[in-house]
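Onboarding guide, step 5: your first structure request.
Type a short instruction followed by the sequence, for example:

Predict the 3D structure of this protein.
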Amino acid sequence: MKNKTLYIHGLNSKPNLLKINLINIYSKVYFLHIDYSKQKDTFTLLSKLIENKNINCIIGSSFGGMLAYWLGKKYNIPSVLFNPAFGKENFINPFKKDNINDAYNLIVLGGNDEIVIPKSVISFIKKTNKKNYELNIIPEMGHRIDLKNFEKVITLFFKKINIEKNNIH
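The system replies with structure tokens like these:
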């Protein structure tokens, strides 16, 4: 299996084993159960995991989606961001504006999300990621990602990144 994926759950959440099993169809999956209120060095912890396991894909949800975005930029790793909870960028962003990699992001927003407002995510992405992203808004979805939509998105993601990898060689 060529892909090694880091799955990052959201705030006040835990890794969803059904979603991990879906990712495992396409990739070896690495994940941690993180208590964000107690684990203050989350970005460093996840960075070390990426380096030690040679992670080449990231999937994150909500706060985990925001972390996935910055980790993907740091390591130039393609990522899926489900309702990324931007707003703590000054705390997390380890880059100068001219020093950000342009890794591909598949961004999935719930049209009915009342926790992460789609308009604010779109505005943020347009400021920080000039070209290498794809945006999908699922009108009926809220903040939680159901398994059906999760499966569709990760299938699309792995197909796309594997096609791109094959075209590079």
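Each response can be followed by summary notes, for example: Residues 63 and 168 are 32 Å apart (CA to CA).
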